[in-house]
Every structure is written in C-alpha cells, then in structure tokens.
Amino acid sequence: MTRIVVVTGGTSGIGRAIAQRFAVDRAEVFITGRHADTVEPTAKELGVHGVVCDAADPGQVASLADRVGQVDVLVNAAGGLPEAASGDGAPLDALLAQWHANLAQNLLTAVLTTAAVQDRLTGDSSVISIGSIGAERRGGSYGAAKAALAAWNASLSAELAPRGVTCNVISAGYIEGTNFFRGGLSDERHRALVEETHNKRPGTVDDIARTACFLASPGARHITGQTIHVNGGAFTTR
Ligand SMILES: NC(=O)c1ccc[n+]([C@@H]2O[C@H](COP(=O)([O-])OP(=O)(O)OC[C@H]3O[C@@H](n4cnc5c(N)ncnc54)[C@H](OP(=O)(O)O)[C@@H]3O)[C@@H](O)[C@H]2O)c1
Fold first, then answer.
1. Of the residues 130, 136, 137, 227, which should be mutated to test ligand 1's pocket, given the most ligand atoms within 8 Å of the CB?
2. Is the dihedral of CA 227, 231, 233, 235 positive or negative?
3. Which atom of ligand 1 approaches the CA of 17 most closely?
4. What is the arrangement of strands in the sheet containing 71-76, beginning at the earlier edge strand?
5. Interval between CA 143 and ligand 1 midpoint (Å)
6. Considering the domain 4-230, what is its CATH architecture?
7. How far apart, in whole angstroms, are the C-alpha atoms of residue 171 and residue 208?
8. Cβ contacts of 208 within 8 Å, gap of 6 or more
9. Core-most of 70, 90, 154, 163, by most CB within 10 Å?
10. Close Cβ partners of 156 (under 8 Å, ≥ 6 residues apart)
11. Where is the signal peptide, in residue numbers (predicted)?
C-alpha cells in the first residue's frame, strides 16, 4: 500500500531531502513551509503535494491535518534559527521574544503538528522529529528548545507506542547544504565544525534522510522514545 508521508519544513535542506527520499520510494508525500513561493515550486520539482502551513499556527496545522487524511510517517523537520527581532524595546522584552520564537519554531511546530494528526496515524506509523546537537551544548534558546523536543518525544512515545507508533528524534550535527545559517557561516566556523567530528566531514542532508527512512522502516519497529545522534562523532554517547 502507498504510504502517506507528511514532512513539515519540506521546502529546503533536511526536510526537502527527506521528502525526496520517501517520494523516490513511491510514498505519497506532503511537504509544508510558510511561503507559497517556495512550497509550490519545490512540490512540483519533487512530484509531491505542497501545503502552505505555518506549523506554529494551530489553525493552519488543523487545516493541514484535514487535507492529508491518514498518515503513515510524520516528519517534523520545520525549525531553525528565527530571524532576530528588530526594534529598540527593553532588553528583557527582546530576550523574551527570542525565547518565545525559538520555542515556537523548534518545539511547538512539532507538538502542534503531531497533536493535529495524532488520530490519523495508522498502526505501524512513525513520528520523526529533527533535533540538534545544540541540545547538548552551547545551544542557548535554540538548544533549549531542541532539548525540550527530545523530552517531549519521550512522553509522546509512551503515549503512542502502545498503538504501534514509534516516536524518535534525529539529533543532527552540522549539516551542509541547508539554509540553516542563511549564508552566514564563515569558512573558519565551517572548518571548526568539521574538525570536531571524528570522520572529518560535514553531515549531508542525505545522512539525515537515510536515517529517517530507516526509522520508518520495518527494521526499526522496536526503536521508540529515542534520540538518534547523527553527527560524525562530534558528540558521543554511551
Ligand atoms: N543544518 C544544520 O546544520 C542543522 C543541524 C541540526 C539541526 N537542524 C534542524 O534541521 C531542521 C531542518 O533545518 P535545515 O537545516 O534543513 O534548514 P532550512 O534549509 O532552513 O530548512 C528549514 C525548513 O523549515 C521550514 N520552516 C521553518 N519554520 C517553519 C514553520 N513555523 N512552519 C513550517 N515550516 C517552517 C522552512 O521553510 P519556510 O521558512 O519557508 O517556512 C524550511 O523548509 C530544523 O529543525 C533545524 O533546526 C539543522
């Protein structure tokens, strides 16, 4: 049977690569993003459905759920570093806005989208959320949001695994070929990020896409409630 796959943040970088892999695998794929001018051309290129949806907006997320019907794989890839708020407000107001924006973009996007499609998840389905090495160190409000994503995933797994749904986070290290840094990554920083890996290379979007496909495969049905680190050894676990 054709699997239905929903990838939030599927217009670029990691989400786009994941959507492409599932589409090549003959799944019926829905990608989302906040802007029609990227959602529509990307959906056309990949041969998938495109839905304009801000995953941090409850009304838009509810409409997305109505549009997709049943779901076999949900990939919560939407996220990243929010635009810095401009303005000359009080420092604490700016700090609060920055934390709210990071929590909305990197935690609440996944929480809301998953809640909206939860009743549409089939048995043997998978919820995969893209976390970050920033949850482990030096992540600030972005890392704190990604750490909360992993904590939420653990409780989601406890709730959904009895129905046969697996719930995992792929915690990505530095991945090149995305818009994450908005072109602002210096050569020096790139070298430093590669240097801290054991295999001395940046991650690729396909490293993450292949991990997502594995987590949604029959071989991964007993893996749930986990954070899977994909970072070339830049952060190690026991
Ligand atoms: N690149 C890395 O080194 C790296 C490392 C660790 C983790 N990650 C994580 O990987 C995920 C994918 O990021 P990426 O690196 O592939 O960056 P990217 O190329 O900037 O892609 C981010 C995607 O998320 C979408 N998006 C952002 N906020 C959204 C929202 N509220 N609702 C719907 N879509 C939204 C973007 O589209 P619109 O802006 O058009 O909405 C875009 O499609 C993110 O969760 C990021 O935190 C990335």
1. 130
2. negative
3. 16
4. 49-52, 28-33, 4-8, 71-76, 121-132, 166-172, 226-230
5. 14
6. 3-Layer(aba) Sandwich (3.40)
7. 9
8. 14, 17, 18, 130, 170, 172, 175, 230
9. 154
10. 114, 127, 167
11. none
Identify the burial level of 31 via C-beta atoms within 10 angstroms of its C-beta, where 0-12 means exposed, 13-18 middle and 19 or more buried: buried
Give the pocket of ligand 1 (CB within 6 Å).
Answer: 8-9, 11-15, 32-35, 38, 54-56, 77-80, 105-106, 109, 130, 132, 172, 174-175, 178-180
pLDDT of residue 216: 98
Is 65 in contact with 51 (CB distance < 8 Å)? Answer: no
Q: Is the pLDDT of residue 88 over 80?
A: no
The pLDDT tens digits for 157-204 are 999 999 999 999 999 999 999 999 998 999 999 999 999 999 999 999
Question: Would you mind telling me the total number of residues written for the chain in this entry?
Answer: 238
Residue 96 has pLDDT above 80, yes or no: yes
Q: Which of the listed residues 180, 185, 207 should we mutate to test ligand 1's pocket, taking the one with most ligand atoms within 8 A of CB?
A: 180
- The set of catalytic residues is 142
**CA dihedral defined by 199, 200, 205, 209, rounded to 10 degrees?**
0
Sole residue written with tokens 């129905």: 163
Model confidence at 110: pLDDT above 90:
yes
Pick the atom of ligand 1 nearest to 11's CA.
Answer: 43
